[in-house]
Model the fold of this input.
Amino acid sequence: MIITELLEKNARLYKNETALVEINPSDERDKATTWREASLIETAMPNSPYRREMTWSEFDIKANKIANLLLSRSTKRGTKVGILLMNCLEWLPIYFGVLKAGCIAVPLNYRYAADEIQYCCDLADIEVLVFGPEFTGRVNEIHNDMPKVKAMFFVGSDGPEYTEDLMYLINFCSSIAPPVEIKETDYSAIYFSSGTTGFPKAILHDHHGLYCSCLTEQNHHRQTRDDVFLCIPPLYHTGAKMHWFGSLLSGSKAVILRGVKPEWILRAVTEEKCTIVWLLVPWAQDILDAIESGKIDLNHYLLDQWRLMHIGAQPVPPSLIHRWKKYFPNHQYDTNYGLSESLGPGCVHLGIENTEKVGAIGIPGYMWEAKIVDENDEEVSQGEVGELCVKGPGVMKCYYKNPDATNEILKGDWLYTGDMAVKDEDGFITLVDRKKDVIISGGENIYPVQIEAFLRKHDKIKDVGVIGLPDQRQGEITAAIIELKEGASCTEDEINDFCQELPRYKRPRKIIFAPVPRNATGKIEKPKLREIYCHGRLVEVQNRS
Done:
């Protein structure tokens, strides 16, 4: 089956039921002391300044109109269409319209600078670019330097003169699905790697992988028609979209929240009766900090229906989940592991029935296999560290136009993740660190994730990133960049005393109090930390030698 057929089925069965809601938090609502006061400031009705919604029928019709518009502009099967939008109500209908036209959807990171947008458009052979008003300045810089892009559509009012108004033009297009035959083996989408090692790589997937992601997600989190999914992370990324695929398969409502403040999240859960929320570690941390500081009173919200909180995109500190269960003891919990190369979350997951294994990323997901191998591609013994490899229906077809990089990560049907991991006696997998992030100090392999997880237990630490700094004698030494909680004060001596519980070789040799940068998907930007803190030290070491 093709996921566009799931949309069409929902439009038939649940025609006038709500499919998508967009919530735009406002400052005035934020000043209210309770969710009830907030709801009086702007009534949460369909298509108010605060809230917009779309039925399944409207969703499918908009996708059909967009598909027909694209086809009227001489696009054909396999044409690459870039989508550069903030999360909004139009995002998913545009994505599905691209797929219905037989084109390949290419979501672009909304944090990209102009040169990165240009690079990705060129790499992916994008011929049509759809973008919103937030990106006008960036696209203005490069629109004359993208010869492959033949058409540009603007989502919003008063677009640049070189664009066409997408939402106006579709008013003149047919609402009937175009007669385009799509096969499971047809290419469907190009997603970009997070670019943590330089410019991102283009990851090519097919329609079969997209549909299987729906099955995996629904199997893991058991979405039903009664569930309401709160989507906060960016839709350009595989994580948010593939978790929403569970709602697509079950025909249930999803809420797109444009904001990450703790009070906004809890109000959306309250007002929309959300049952499933996917958070990144920093957002869960912020909610807990707001509760513990007294900024949020849980009695002001209606949260009894919230049944599942799950986290992915990065290693999850067990201490965070233990804190979470203190305030939300009835929540089911799941950790989801995946890569854009494996169509996002689900190739490994903890499972909502395995809370006692918090700290592990879990076991192979539905329809997935996993193994841990050494440098000779031999499976390691239980308890030994090796590289995690996964195999399943969501494994990418290739890195587009990059056979060398493809051959490095794909070996037969197995995807080599670059993540170092270990398996316990029950078969549960725990991440140790990124292969490229391992610190080698005095001949010892040191895994930063382990040190980060330990330091996050300190009650004054909000976030921490551990990197290796060049050292003439040891090769590298361990440095901890520590971001303190708001209003907290702490000294190096206090951190060093706290670290006495660690083995000597794992204790940070340098403590730096500073913000910890994370990308839009919540991952610590280790290259940025190295750029900030390693360069000067490397020069110093070289001068000594």
